[in-house]
């Protein structure tokens, strides 16, 4: 049987849940209803491990059989279900489903991988010691490190001034540059939290947000002049900022000797043309103050799948 392009897309990207059947069942007592869940991962892999489930706020653990099936009997009525498999997969939320008295309902569940593959673009690291000194900086990237400048060889060994001037291998730099192939785990960020920004408002938005975070004029200028040209191809963009500990899920940073302040911000963005603005609420951003030795890092990535999740 030949598939149309749309049918192929649906076959490769099944919805998180679908009601496959409902039928009368003589084994179900009056006033009650039976539901059969059928659990899979993407691409048809059967789930046989325990699933955390809640219905109308009541929690339960269920164990699918070898075919990924599990049954429950509940009082007839409307139920909103929530399913959790593990941290590498997105939770599944259903709408309110009517379970009819004396009936059996089949529900198919497909857990989608929570990791979005991305390219971490132009993370740059600024170094501001209290006095001129030698500093060692090491990255631990969750993925494959790409281009670095100056060249990264088991770390950067640099000499830095309080004004941010960096010296290594007889050359002078304003910042340390790296990029990488990595992934973002949506379970570790609140993707409904962020901003929907129109094309013509990007520069002003970043000036305000980055200033509030504590970035200085040079850091803001570097950020804006890199990202705005890329983002202005879209009429509007969804923007979410990951800070410090969240950033560590992409790449951790070790600085020796340790500075008094390390502030890291990673921007996740996507075309917002298909995102319902009502699904996004303003994000509360973090901030820091420059009192003493400081390391600042910013980076970002376009995450195209976010438009499908929101």
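Sequence proposed for the structure above (310 residues):
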């Amino acid at each position: 049987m030949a598939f149309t392009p749309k049918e192929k897309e649906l076959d490769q990207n099944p919805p998180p849940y679908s009601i496959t059947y409902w039928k009368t069942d003589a084994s179900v007592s009056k006033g009650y209803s039976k539901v059969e869940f059928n659990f899979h991962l993407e691409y048809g892999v059967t789930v046989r491990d325990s699933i955390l489930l809640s219905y109308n706020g009541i929690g339960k653990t269920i164990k699918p059989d070898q075919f990924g099936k599990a049954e429950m009997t509940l009082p007839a009525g409307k139920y909103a279900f929530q399913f959790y498999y593990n941290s590498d997969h997105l939770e599944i939320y259903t709408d309110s489903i009517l379970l009819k008295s004396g009936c059996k309902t089949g529900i198919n569940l497909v857990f989608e991988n929570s990791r979005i593959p991305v390219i971490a673009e132009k993370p740059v690291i600024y170094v501001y010691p209290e006095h001129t000194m030698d500093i060692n900086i090491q990255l631990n990237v969750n993925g494959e490190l790409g281009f670095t400048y100056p060249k990264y060889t088991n770390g950067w060994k640099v000499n830095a001034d309080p004004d941010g001037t960096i010296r290594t291998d007889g050359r002078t730099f304003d910042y340390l540059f790296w990029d990488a192939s990595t992934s973002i785990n949506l379970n570790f960020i609140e993707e409904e939290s962020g901003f929907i920004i129109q094309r013509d408002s990007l520069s002003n938005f970043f000036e305000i947000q980055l200033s509030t975070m504590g970035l200085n004029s040079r850091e803001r200028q570097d950020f804006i002049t890199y990202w705005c040209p890329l983002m202005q191809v879209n009429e509007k963009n969804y923007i979410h900022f990951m800070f410090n500990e969240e950033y560590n899920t992409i790449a951790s940073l070790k600085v020796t000797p340790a500075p008094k302040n390390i502030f890291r911000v990673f921007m996740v963005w996507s075309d917002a043309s298909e995102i319902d603005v009502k699904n996004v609420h303003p994000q509360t951003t973090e901030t820091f103050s420059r009192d003493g030795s400081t390391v600042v890092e910013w980076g970002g990535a376009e995450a195209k799948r976010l438009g499908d999740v929101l």
